[in-house]
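Marked as duplicate of an earlier ticket. Keeping the data here for the record.
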Amino acid sequence: MSKQVIQVGIGGMGNTWLRTVLGSTEFSHSAFVEISDEIGKRQAEAYGLNPSKIFKTLNEALTTVPADGVINVTPPQFHREISIQALEAGLPVLSEKPLADTLESAQAIVRKANETGVLHMVTQNYRYSIPAQTLKEAMDSKALGEVGALTVEFFKGPHFGGFREEMDYPLIIDMSIHHFDMMRFFLESDPLWVYGRSWNPNWSWYRGDASAAVLIGFDNGVRVSYNGSWCSTGMETPWNGDWRFECEKGVISLEDDQVRTQLTGQEAEIAPPVQMEHVAQAYLLHEFHQALTEGHKPATTCQDNIKSLSLVFDVIRSFERGEVIRCKSS
C-alpha cells in the first residue's frame, strides 16, 4: 500500500530525497515545505512538482493535505522544531542525520517520540551500502575470531558552502556521525570512553575544526583509532572511509569500498559483494514503509541513534577539555 509523505526541505540534500521518493513505488509526496521561493520554483521546474503543494511552513502543509509521514531534510538546527511538530501531529518522521544539532535537542526529540509513541527514525544510510553490508556479513561469520582493535581513516575535501562551513566541528558533527554509527553497527557494542584532538589546517575553507584524531574504547573491549579530515587536498578515501579490523585469527579490511579478509598465514581474499534490492536512502525509505505498514521496528530509531549522536558530543567535550571523557551512552 502506497503512503504519502510531506518532505520538509527540497534544496541541497532535499534533491536526494526528491529523487528517492519519486523513484519509489511505496511512497508519493502529498506536499513539500520550502521557505525559499527561489528554491521552490527551481525544484518545481526541475522535478515537475505541483507549485500549489509547496508550502512555507509544516503547519500549513499539515492543515491542508493528508499525509502518513514526514521526511525532515532541514539543516540540523531545525530538526528539533520540525520533528516535534510532526510527532505531536501523530505523523511518523524519517529525519536526515544528525538527529539534532545539540544533545539537548536530540533528547527532546527522543522524549517526544516516547511520549507520543510515534516513530522517529534517522537516515543513517551508510549502514545500508553494499560495502558496509558485505563487511558486516564477513564479521558476522566469526571466521577470524574476536576483534581486538579497529583503525578507521577518512579523508575528503568537499566544498559544500552553506551551514556546514560555519559549524564549530563540521567533520565530527556532520560526517563522523556516519562513521561512529557504523562503528556501533559493526562492533555491536557501545562506547565507554573517548579521547580526541581537533584542529583546522591553515588552508581550510571551514570556519571550525575540520580535522581530528580520536581514540574510542568500546564496552566489548575493542579499541578504535579514528583519523579524519574534511579539508584534505588529495589522495581521498571513499565516503565510507577505510577500515581495518585486527582480529584474533587475521584481518578484515574495507579499503576503496572493497572488503578483504586474511586468515593468519594465508593469502588475502576478496569478499564477494552482497546483493541488495535497496541501498542507502532507498533502503531507509523501504524500512520506513515496512514500519508504517507492518509495524516493523527500524534499526535506526531516534531511541537507538541518540547513542551514536552522544558519541559525537562526547568527542567534542574531549576536544574542548583535553581529557578522556566517559561516554554518556554507556
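See parent ticket for discussion. The radius of gyration is 20 Å.
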